[in-house]
Amino acid sequence: MNSMRDKVARIRSAVVKIVSLEAPPVAGQARVGLGSGFLVSADGHIVTNSHVVRSDDPSLTQVIFPRGRPITCSGFVMRDLVRDYTILKIADSTFPFLTLGSYDDVEEGDPIMFCGYPLEEDPYSAFPTTHMGYISSKLPAMVDGNQLNICKLDGSVNNGNSGGPLLSQETEKVVGIITQKVGGIDNKMKEFVEVFRSAPSVFTINFGNRSYDPNRTLAEFMDLMAKYSNVGIGIAFSIEYAKAELQRRAII
Asked: For the chain, first and last CA: distance in Å?
């Protein structure tokens, strides 16, 4: 029987970090899209969220393996903005990959696993985290007028997990794509961050050779807390949409 340690090692080897620059830059500064993705074929096809990818130019998107160096994306196979998935390709080689299962492989109460890259100060730092949880509900949801199957999961979903795989603990097969984190104390913290950032400076505190604005310092602290807060419900779109496209193109 495979140990959980073995399962985690296999899954993490096929989960990558996605770093994508926005083009053209906004206000002269390119924003960076950060998220996760996972390999679905040995020749380098990767699935991630479309909202993680900032540009239609594949040369502006890079893929990083755990503790590895960035690999520039060689092309986009397709992007589905409604179902929020993108299939991209990196240079031919032999890569570890995950097997795709079915949305029907899991039911409410079943244990699941998900893996991804929580946001860090250095966008090119690639240290994945693996989490456990369970399916709290399965239901159809309306997205831009389209009815899509989603899973709600109870687990420590991090900002940066978007695009990562949701897997059945029993089969180790991908049943969904982590799409967003909703609820939780971090959303309320973000509201406070904006309040303190927009508040006028009343006084400063001198400490050593630096001056600190209490409002700005508190905003920075709360922003950091919100970024790493793990409380909240995760949403994952069914893998069926990406799987059907991969099969249609004979990638899997």
From this structure: 27
Q: Which long-range contacts (CB under 8 A, 24 or more apart) does 71-76 make?
A: 74/44
Residue numbers annotated as active site: 51, 84, 162
Residue 151 lies in a domain: no
Domain that holds residue 67: 4-89
Residue 115 in domain: no
pLDDT in tens, 67-108: 888 999 999 999 999 999 999 999 888 999 999 999 999 999
Please state, in angstroms and rounded to a whole number, the distance separating the CA atoms of residues 219 and 192: 7
Task: Write the single-letter amino acid at 242.
Answer: A
Q: What pTM, to 2 d.p., does this model score? A: 0.81
Question: Coil, strand, or helix at residue 189?
Answer: helix
Higher local confidence (pLDDT), 206 or 16: 16
208 by DSSP, 3-state: which? coil
* Residues paired with residue 153 on neighbouring β-strands, in sequence order: 135, 234
- Domain end: 73, 89, 105, which one? 89
Question: How many domains does the chain fold into?
Answer: 2
Examine residue 13 and state whether it is found in any structural domain, yes or no: yes
Residue 242 tokens, joined: 């990406």
Q: Which residues pair with 71 in a beta bridge?
A: 63
CB 20 within 8 Å of CB 51:
no
